[in-house]
Structures are given as structure tokens and as C-alpha cells.
């Protein structure tokens, strides 16, 4: 029996601790969102991303300000649906529905289980559809809120502007894109300081030097962070009119981009 804990307003999520990189690996494979990662994901993301619980909960609060009646709210790269659950806790706008999309079959399967659990515990939640698919191939419907919560960094850099342009085209007046990302910094001293402080955050959360080093080499080929300046310029190039950072903790930040 997997261990479960209740958080996010009562919905049970796995609390299996992340020890994926605890043993020395002869060769560290590229990071993938497979079944092993799915089992430990809630623990991994909370212990790895400073500010993650604050970002997710407040993403729901922000979304409620931008949600327009009878529109779609997208959770792109939904993983286990933490953002979708926050949207359902906070958005009360008439006729809204959530579309969560992820291309990891293992994530989608577990996400559907969690959302069914939330459905059975609470009434009058926004309807949700969970799609297993590539967000680069998605046919966007008119949307008032689009959340990319730590997903764009996994998209090939040369595909990012096109994806953001398509999101911009789908956004309704009064809507918003909420984009959370790990940042890199153009100033080498600032980059080194915030990278060291992120390592200290992981150490304080119980990760060993070996776990930190092996995870770093697992993600370096698959996760390519940009600077805040690059994000701003790309969002403006994609047609957004205004970019407003609303949260930063160490080298992790979240931005609101307005159509
Ligand atoms: N092309 C793609 N199409 C669809 N999904 C993708 C694609 N590329 C990557 N993904 C998916 O994007 C998610 C990124 S995790 C998001 C956390 C979540 N938002 C959270 O708030 O808990 C971030 C992290 O682990 O740092 C994974 O589930 C991938 O399968
Ligand atoms: O662990 C890290 O160093 C990160 O940058 C964040 C992260 C969190 C979960 C999966 C992949 C990357």
C-alpha cells in the first residue's frame, strides 16, 4: 500500500519520500516524468522548488481575478494536478471549466485519480478534463487563464515563442497567462549566489550532496531555464502587452503576462 497524506484541502496525495538519486549511479540518465518520479513527485517538488506551495495556492487566488464567465482555464504541464486543484478551490466564476494537459502517461493516470477523489469529496467544483498530450500540438480554445507552472523550462527553447504566441492568441480580454519558472541570471555573481542558496535550500530539506549532484546532472539536458529579461522579451514578442513578476523565492519566480 502506498503511503498517503492529506493536503490541498483533503485530497490524498502520495507522501512517498524522494530517494531517486540517493544511491550512486554509474551513469545518471536524463530526467523523465516516469512512474518512479510520479510516486515521489509531491515530495520532490516541495523539497526542490522554494516557494512551490505558496505559488500553487496563490495561482488559484490570481486566477479567480482573471477568470471570465463561460471560458476555459488551462493547466499546461499539469503533472498531478496541483494547480488544477487550486483553481477549483478558488475560482467561482460561472461556466468556467479546467483543461489540464500533460504528455506523461504516468502523471495523467495518477492526476485523474486525485481529481476523482476531489470530485467525490466536494460539490460544485469546476468541471475538469485531463488530456494526455503534447501542449505544442494543442488546439487552444478561448481561455481566460493559462497556467504554465514550471513547464515552459522543459519545452525546447526554439519552440517557446511559438507556444506563447498561440497561448496569447487564445487569451480573452481580461485574461492572463501565469508563468512560473526556474531562473538563470545574466550577472555571474547573482547566478552563483542564488544557485548556492538553492543548494542550501535542498540540503536543509534533507537532500545529500550526492542526491543534489546526481539530480543536477539528470536535469541539465532536459530543463533549460531562461533569465527574467529573456522571459519578458519573449512574452512581448509573442504579443503580450505587460509582464508583471508577482513572486520570487531564490532562483524561482512567477510572472503574470497580460494580453
Ligand atoms: N510538451 C509537453 N506537453 C505536455 N506536458 C509536458 C510537456 N513537456 C513537459 N511536460 C510536463 O510538464 C510537467 C512539468 S512539472 C509541472 C509541475 C506542475 N505544473 C505543478 O504545479 O505541480 C515541473 C517540474 O517537475 O519541475 C511534467 O509533468 C511533464 O510531463
Ligand atoms: O530540483 C531542481 O534542482 C530543480 O530545479 C527543480 C525540479 C523539480 C522537480 C523536477 C525537476 C526539476
From TrEMBL:
Keyword annotations for this protein, in alphabetical order, are: S-adenosyl-L-methionine, Transferase
Report if keyword Transmembrane is assigned.
Answer: no
Give the coiled coil ranges. Answer: none
Q: Which residues form the Methyltransferase domain?
A: 75-175
Cited Gene3D superfamilies: Vaccinia Virus protein VP39
Tell me one Pfam family matched here.
Methyltransf_25
Q: What does the entry list as the binding residues for S-adenosyl-L-methionine?
A: 52, 77-79, 102-103, 134-135, 149, 216
Has the keyword S-adenosyl-L-methionine been applied to this entry? yes
Q: What is its EC number?
A: 2.1.3.-
Please write the reaction equations for the catalytic activity of this protein: prephenate + S-adenosyl-L-methionine = carboxy-S-adenosyl-L-methionine + 3-phenylpyruvate + H2O
The cross-references to SUPFAM superfamilies, in alphabetical order and at most eight, read: S-adenosyl-L-methionine-dependent methyltransferases (SSF53335)
Q: Could you tell me the superkingdom of the organism this chain comes from?
A: Bacteria
Q: Which family does it belong to?
A: Belongs to the class I-like SAM-binding methyltransferase superfamily. Cx-SAM synthase family.
Subunit details for this protein?
Homodimer.
Functionally, this protein is described as follows: Catalyzes the conversion of S-adenosyl-L-methionine (SAM) to carboxy-S-adenosyl-L-methionine (Cx-SAM).
Designated name of the protein: Carboxy-S-adenosyl-L-methionine synthase
Per the UniProt entry, what species is this protein from, by scientific name?
A: Pseudomonas hormoni
Taxonomy of origin reads:
Bacteria, Pseudomonadati, Pseudomonadota, Gammaproteobacteria, Pseudomonadales
Amino acid at each position: 500500500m502506498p503511503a498517503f497524506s492529506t493536503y490541498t484541502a483533503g485530497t490524498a496525495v502520495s507522501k512517498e519520500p524522494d530517494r531517486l538519486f540517493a544511491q550512486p549511479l554509474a551513469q545518471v540518465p536524463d530526467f523523465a516524468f516516469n512512474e518512479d518520479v510520479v510516486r515521489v513527485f509531491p515530495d520532490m517538488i516541495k523539497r526542490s522548488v522554494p516557494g512551490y506551495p505558496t505559488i500553487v495556492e496563490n495561482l488559484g487566488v490570481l486566477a479567480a481575478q482573471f477568470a471570465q464567465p463561460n471560458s476555459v482555464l488551462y493547466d499546461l504541464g499539469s503533472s498531478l494536478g496541483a494547480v488544477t486543484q487550486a483553481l477549483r478551490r478558488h475560482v467561482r466564476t460561472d461556466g468556467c471549466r479546467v483543461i489540464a494537459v500533460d504528455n506523461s502517461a504516468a502523471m495523467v493516470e495518477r492526476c485523474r485519480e486525485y481529481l476523482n477523489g476531489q470530485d467525490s469529496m466536494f460539490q460544485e467544483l469546476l468541471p475538469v478534463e485531463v488530456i494526455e498530450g503534447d501542449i505544442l500540438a494543442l488546439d487552444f480554445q478561448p481561455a481566460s487563464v493559462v497556467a504554465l507552472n514550471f513547464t515552459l523550462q522543459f519545452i525546447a527553447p526554439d519552440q517557446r515563442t511559438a507556444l506563447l504566441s498561440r497561448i496569447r492568441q487564445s487569451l480573452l480580454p481580461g485574461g492572463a497567462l501565469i508563468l512560473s519558472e526556474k531562473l538563470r541570471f545574466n550577472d555571474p555573481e547573482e547566478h552563483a549566489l542564488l544557485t548556492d542558496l538553492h543548494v542550501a535550500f535542498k540540503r536543509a530539506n534533507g537532500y545529500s550532496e550526492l542526491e543534489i549532484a546526481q539530480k543536477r546532472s539528470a536535469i541539465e539536458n532536459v530543463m533549460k531555464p531562461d533569465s527574467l529579461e529573456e522571459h519578458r522579451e519573449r512574452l512581448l514578442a509573442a504579443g503580450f502587452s505587460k509582464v508583471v513578476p508577482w513572486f520570487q523565492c531564490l532562483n524561482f519566480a512567477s510572472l503574470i503576462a497580460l494580453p
